[in-house]
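pasting for the record
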Amino acid sequence: MRPAVLVAAMEVALKSSVQAFGVAESTSTSLVMLPGLFAGDWIWSAAATLLAEAGQHCLVLRDAYAERKAHIDDPFGALVDDLLETLDQHALSSVFLAGNSVGGVVALEAARRHPERIAGLLLSGVPGLGGPARLGIRPKLRYTREDALEVARRLCVNHDLVTDEVVTRCLAPFQQTRTIVNIARYVLALETYDSEHAVRRLACPTLFVWGGQDQVTPVERLRALPAVWNSLCTIDGCGHSPMFECPALYGDAVLRFVDVHSPAQTV
């Protein structure tokens, strides 16, 4: 039987914001999935459903970027603390982390700070690896639906997926000035975060699952990094969030990686 999978996109109110997919097994290695700033927990829904159908237990939590303040001296520390709290609440001693975009940075930081808790990483669209993030919009205090549409179209290659619901979800983090300012702090923090250095120092198995047509963090620069030469899985026909555009192919890559590298764990 394959390892159980925990899919988690973080939220401040962790205990009350869990959505389950599938049935938990008595022993498992869990996979915690972390969302980006502009594509939140909803990007994991299709992949979580498919994983559950394959016999994998999944839990989806919400993201916390709009609520968690990015402190100047340690912008990602509170998010890592939230993640560890989630693991403790579910009695998970060793997990895989899958991070999309900024979620990948949180995964890198968690692996650096708590290597004993991390069995491996699956990273997609991490800023600084595929070059600086190119969202196509400038920072401002008020965002419109047109701005959200532009972001959604940059995230996706298949624009048929850019529905009214997706645009609404992309716009949701920008409805209040307070959350806009907080998200802007994370964007600024990413400009100085050295993702390449963090990857070079990783001690755990890592798979880079990248959209072949990612417009936000293009894969071309990633291919030039020696640290990823033997661990890059490119999924053609999708962009910045392959788990959203190509959930079946993404899920297959996840299952292969987890099956190979999963340690025994008791839940």
